[in-house]
Please model this.
Amino acid sequence: MSKFATSGHGKRIYIQEVATRDGFQNEATFVDTSDKVDLIDSLSDCGFAKIEATSFTSPRAIPALRDAEAVMHQIRRRPGVVYTVLVPNVRGAERAMSCGVDEVNLVMSTSETHNRANLRMSREQSFAQLTDVIAAVQGSGHKTAINVSLSTVFGCPMEGEIDEADVLRWMARFMELGVDGFTLCDTTGMAYPSQVQELSDHARKLFPEVQLTLHFHNTRGMALANALAAIEAGIDRFDSSMGGLGGCPYAPGASGNVCTEDLVHMLQLMGYDTGVDLSALLQASGRLPGLIGHEVPSQILKAGRRMDLHARPAYLDEAQGATQMAGS
Model:
C-alpha cells in the first residue's frame, strides 16, 4: 500500500483560493464587478481559509482588475476567512488598506531575469520598493498582515535552476523586515516532488514562526504530486485556483494554477480535512465558463467526483430480462 493511502487521518490542510485575482487577471474578458462580488461571496461560504480577491495594481497594467476598490467594498466578509490582495507598491498598499483588507501580498522573483522581465526591475530594486511597502503597512495603524510571494523558486524558464540557498537568503532578508508569511511559487510549473519536499522541509526548519504557503502550477501535470510532496514535508497551506484558471506569459500555452476542486477532491479522498464544501465549490466553479467565455481545465468539472456514479446502461437490463425469459 502507498504511504500516502492512509496518511490524512483528518489532518487539517488550509486551502487558499486565488482565482478571482491570479485567474481573472489573465482573462481577456472583463468580469463585471457584480459577478466578481457574487462569486467571492459564494467562495466565502465554501470554507476557504483565505481568498485572494483582487489586485491593487494600475488599472492600465491590469484592466481586468480595475474595479478593485468596488469589489472590496461590496463583498460580504465572512468571519474566519482572510481576504488578501496583491499590492505592487506603496500607493497600491494605501488603496488596499483604505478598503480594510486583512492581508497584502507582495511579489518578487528569485530569478533576476524573470524579475526584470515581469516587473521591469532588478531584484534589489524590487526589494527596496517592497521594503517601503512593508514600512508603510506596519506604520499605518491598520492590523494588516504582510505576505511575500517569491516567484520561480523551483526554476526559471529563462535561467533554469534556482539555487535553493538563494531562495532561503531572500526569505531571511524579508524576515528581518517582520513579514508574517511567505508563498513559495512554482511560477511556470517546473517543480518536481523531491525538489519540493526538500525546499519545503528546509524552509519550515529555518523559518518555523511564519505562515508558509506553496503555490503550484500544473504546466507539466505535476501540481497534485507536488502538493503531496509538500504535505510530506509538513506544509499545510496551498494556493489554488478554481477551474485551474491562471497562467504565466513566460510559459506560452501552459495551463494555470493547480485546480482547487481537483486538489480538494484528492485530499478529501485521502482523509485530509480541507474545510472546503466540494459541492458548493463545484457550483461556483461551474459558473466560470459563462463568466470568462471559455472552458476551464478542471478535471472534476469534466468527469465528476470519484463516486458520482452513472446509471446502468439500459441494454444491460434488457439483456438480463431476455436471459431470465430464456431460462424460464
About this structure: Residues 14-327 form a domain with the TIM Barrel fold (CATH 3.20.20.70).
